[in-house]
Amino acid sequence: MTMSTELAATEGVDPRYTDLDIWPTASILDALGEAQMAATAVVRTAVPEIERVVEAAVPKLLSGGRLFYVGAGTSGRIGLQDGVELVPTFGWPPERLVLLLAGGTGAVFQAAEGAEDDEDQARTDILAHAPGPNDVVLGIAASGATPYACAAISVAREKGSLTVGISCNAQGRLLRVSELAIRLITGPEVVSGSTRLKAGTAQKAALNLLSTTLMARLGHVYRGLMVDMRVTNAKLQRRAVRMVQQLAGGSEEEIVAALQETGGNVKRAVLLRHGLSLAEAETRLDMADGSLRTVLADLHQC
């Protein structure tokens, strides 16, 4: 398959928007809004593929594996954003998160010319983190053909990692070299080739579904609450107090004391409010793969 064929879906021109630049402002906005809604609808159709990824990834991450995000340009920055937010939102250990963006951290703020084509650098970058069998590596590329993402994914798969290609083209090298695929077929953009639009929205929405479901399955969510969030400011401190109150009761003074003893961790503070010591809470959570629901169910049976 030729490169031009692989890129057709995201690089194509939609004739409906040929005269977009002379449309009334409201019409431009309406067209863009319609396209964004279409992008999220595409993500719903990919739910079975996302489910397969979650089911394959959970055992590896429960065994101590790391979560990698790899990409270039807009796709890479979308992946980086999703990954970074797992640490404060769900308490995901930063040492188990690897973010690889073509061009390095400088590419977060400005385009890194040619970086997305550098396959040698991609191999060097990912090998520096020694990917292994328990790691889960997400490669994100709207075109499905970005050399940096493809090369990194190929290396990770050779090392036995679970590799996942996320692309807005049904065909492409990224999906061929990945073990699992998430296809988000968004088609031509309102502004041809500008994959920060529909494709970007679809990629971010799909990652929202994937990472949030992973975190829920890994025990970082209980009763719809972020029980492993990191308390880093006054707003989050108040939220943590409300969550412990909702889940375990007690006076504000008692709840604040429990949170202080656990370093601000809601999950553990709840268990302290149920009468466990911090050491007992840690032991029970370890035995339950971090699931607060499982630990509380066991306590209620005693």
UniProtKB/TrEMBL annotation:
Alphabetical UniProt keywords: Carbohydrate metabolism, Lyase
Domain of life: Bacteria
Pathway membership, UniProt: Cell wall biogenesis; peptidoglycan recycling; Amino-sugar metabolism; N-acetylmuramate degradation; Amino-sugar metabolism; 1,6-anhydro-N-acetylmuramate degradation
Pfam family, one: GKRP_SIS_N
Catalytic residue positions: 85 (proton donor), 116
EC number, as in UniProt: 4.2.1.126
A biological process from GO: peptidoglycan turnover
Catalytic activity reported: N-acetyl-D-muramate 6-phosphate + H2O = N-acetyl-D-glucosamine 6-phosphate + (R)-lactate
Single annotated GO MF: carbon-oxygen lyase activity
Family matches, as InterPro entries: Etherase_MurQ (IPR005488), Glucokinase_regulatory_CS (IPR005486), MURQ/GCKR (IPR040190), SIS_dom (IPR001347), SIS_dom_sf (IPR046348)
UniProt subunit comment: Homodimer.
UniProt record similarity statement: Belongs to the GCKR-like family. MurNAc-6-P etherase subfamily.
Alphabetical list of NCBIfam families matching this protein: PRK05441.1, PRK12570.1
Its job: Specifically catalyzes the cleavage of the D-lactyl ether substituent of MurNAc 6-phosphate, producing GlcNAc 6-phosphate and D-lactate. Together with AnmK, is also required for the utilization of anhydro-N-acetylmuramic acid (anhMurNAc) either imported from the medium or derived from its own cell wall murein, and thus plays a role in cell wall recycling.
Note, other: A lyase-type mechanism (elimination/hydration) is suggested for the cleavage of the lactyl ether bond of MurNAc 6-phosphate, with the formation of an alpha,beta-unsaturated aldehyde intermediate with (E)-stereochemistry, followed by the syn addition of water to give product.
Protein name, entry field: N-acetylmuramic acid 6-phosphate etherase
Species: Kozakia baliensis
